[in-house]
């Protein structure tokens, strides 16, 4: 699960037909890889035109969800000053990931029971998404 306070949806004027919109949501929800999400996004772009911002956000969040799942991260929460990665029993961290985490977060992370917490500078949650993407790549 990813909990980021951003607009991430398919606008009614982008896909007005409800059945097509539901199909697009179902495709995104069932995606299991970044490549699959990219393919869905390209298909929407080809069929309906340039993705509006809320849909581009939904595609970005879906990519992050698939990356998180692949890394054993079960929950991602971004608020104004903190990023929390919930980790399940499938999560392991490679020793080489620690220096990357230190570099990406300026050493402002800590491990807790079932989670990694990163202190963030106050910004809008959407502005932290590139950091989240880099962190997931580093893990």
Short characterization:
The chain has 139 residues and is α+β, with helices and mostly antiparallel strands. 47% of the residues lie in helices and 17% in strands.
Summarize the helices and strands and which ones pair or pack.
Layout (H helix, E strand, L loop, with lengths): L1 E3 L13 H13 L3 H15 L4 H19 L1 E6 L3 E6 L9 H9 L3 E4 L2 E5 L9 H10 L1
Parallel strand pairs: 1-2
Antiparallel strand pairs: 2-3, 3-5, 4-5
Helix pairs in contact: 2-3, 3-5, 4-5
Helix-and-strand structural type: alpha+beta
Mean pLDDT: 92
Report the C-alpha radius of gyration, rounded: 16 Å
Count of helical stretches: 5
Cα(first) to Cα(last) distance is: 17 Å
- Report the order of strands and helices: EHHHEEHEEH
Give the strand order of the largest sheet, numbering strands 1, 2, ... along the chain: 1-2-3-5-4
The low-pLDDT segments are none
Q: Strand fraction band? A: 15-25%
Biggest sheet character: 5 strands, mixed
Helix content: 40-55%
Number of strands: 5
The coarse silhouette is: elongated
